Amino acid sequence: MVSAIFKNRLFQEPGAEREFVQRNHRRKTKSRVFFMYAAPIAYAAHVILDFFVAGDHATLFILLRLCLVCPGMMFVAYLFNHHHRRFGTDNLICAYLMLPTLNVIYMCAVVEGMAADVYPFGVMIILYCCSAFILPSFRFMVRYSVVFLALFWAVFPYSAISFEAAVAHGFFQIMGTAVNIIGVYFLELTERRQHANEINLEEMISDLETSERNIRDLYHEAKKADRAKGEFLAVVSHELRTPMNAIIGFSEIISSEMLGKVQPVQYREYAQHIHSSGQQLLHIINDILDLSRAEMNKIEFVHREFDLSTAVRAAIVSCRENAREAGVSILQVEPFLHDVSVTGDEARIVQALVNIIGNGIKFSNTGGQVEVCTAFTVDGGMKLLVTDYGIGISPEDVEQIRKPFQQAESAFSRNTGGLGLGLAICSIIAEAHGGKLNIESTLGERTCVSLELPEVLVRAPKALDDTPDIGLAEIA
């Protein structure tokens, strides 16, 4: 078994062996066909040798060469080129080589005189050409060499070859045949290893393509699941807002005693707690609704021109009550640029500022302060800065807190609650206006969050030089 000789498990399967033979044949077909058509021409050219050394047998040898052997080789070459699948590659190569082989052996057997010592060289020429140009399989080469040499030495006793010439021919034939067999062995061994590597590579490529398809399918499924999640959150958040508005409204009526005095007094306090908790829950619901809309590209922005200072003051006023409850003051840092108009969604800008200021309040210590400032950027845009001097953020958490449902990993941050949606929504709002959200922080010292708007959205009638000196004004 060839598979046992080459010791490769791949070729122990008949199907794999056939695949190797077919692929190997496809690689060698062009070179083999060229040689098989060219060799009869070279063989016919040796007719000159018959003229000079064949003597009385010259006419017979010439007729055999030109009228039988060469046409037969051309015919077999044609069959090899067009019908090798039908007749078999090794069978056609064997028939092709046996024509000149039998012709040479016959001439060695009948020729006389000095020519008897010359014609046996044809045996070695055919062997060398077989291994060098046709590149047969190892199995075929072994069988053909044994049969070829056996036929030659079978007719040797009946030929006129001298003993000395026979010894010389025998030595060169055995050595040449051994070299050919060893060379073809290593050639086929290399080809089989190459084939095995190609098969492994093809399997790897197939596995990679399968993995790529699976990843692509999983990606699409994940996108569908994410879209379904967003739609579910949007529906649930929308359905929760209606009863939550009712809870907030009725608790406010009760806590403010709009329809009469509430007795006992604890009920009014409970109503105030319900109102405060309802507002917090409504804020969370609104954040979830905004995030789900943004993920589905359904969040709406109404762009119009508005006064920036008015929007900033509105955001500060919205955070005033939370700041008082936390014991934190909100400071407006001058220059607070007046008469600066911005084209954008005022409600969304206010929402972003409320989230940023709310975070500053949440992560400030009691008695601390949150500073709000506006300033022009180098390229003429506008920057809204909110600075707190609370716990700060570690460098590895700065990028993390931009993502939805992510918070800085600290015991204090976990105790403050929240879903971690504020800065994610702020980043979405900034990007929707063509700007960006920047976060600079030093752990344990301060955090500065800036919302930058591009120059194209800003209209400032007053120059920077007209702004008053920097100072602090307490808003809350």
Describe the fold and architecture.
The protein is of the alpha+beta class. The chain has three domains: 2-209, no CATH class; 239-295; 304-474, 2-Layer Sandwich (Heat Shock Protein 90). It has 15 helices and nine strands. It has helices at residues 2-6, 14-45, 47-53, 58-87, 89-110, 121-134, 138-155, 163-255, 265-295, 308-318, 320-326, 346-362, 395-398, 411-415, 422-432, and strands at residues 304-307, 329-333, 341-344, 369-376, 382-388, 436-442, 446-453, 458-459, 472-474. Strands 6-7-5-4-2-9 form a six-stranded mixed beta sheet. Strands 1-3-8 form a three-stranded antiparallel beta sheet. Helix 4 (58-87) runs antiparallel to helix 5 and helix 5 runs antiparallel to helix 6 (121-134). Residues 409-415 and 463-476 have low confidence and may be disordered.
Structure at a glance:
By secondary structure, the chain is of the alpha+beta class. It folds into three domains: 2-209, no CATH class; 239-295; 304-474, Histidine kinase-like ATPase, C-terminal domain (Heat Shock Protein 90). 64% of the residues lie in helices and 10% in strands.
Q: Which features characterize this protein?
A:
about 475 residues, alpha+beta, Heat Shock Protein 90, 3 domains, 6-stranded mixed β-sheet, disordered C terminus
Q: What would the average pLDDT be, to the nearest integer?
A: 78
Gyration radius over CA: 47 Å
Q: What's the total helix number?
A: 15
| Shape verdict | rod-shaped
Return the domain count: 3
Helix and strand element order: HHHHHHHHHEHHEEHEEHHHEEEE
N-to-C terminal Cα separation, in Å?
A: 94 Å
Structural class computed from helices and strand pairing:
alpha+beta
Estimate the strand proportion.
5-15%
With strands numbered from the N-terminus, the spatial order across the biggest sheet is 6-7-5-4-2-9
Classify the helix fraction into a percent range: 55-70%
Number of strands: 9
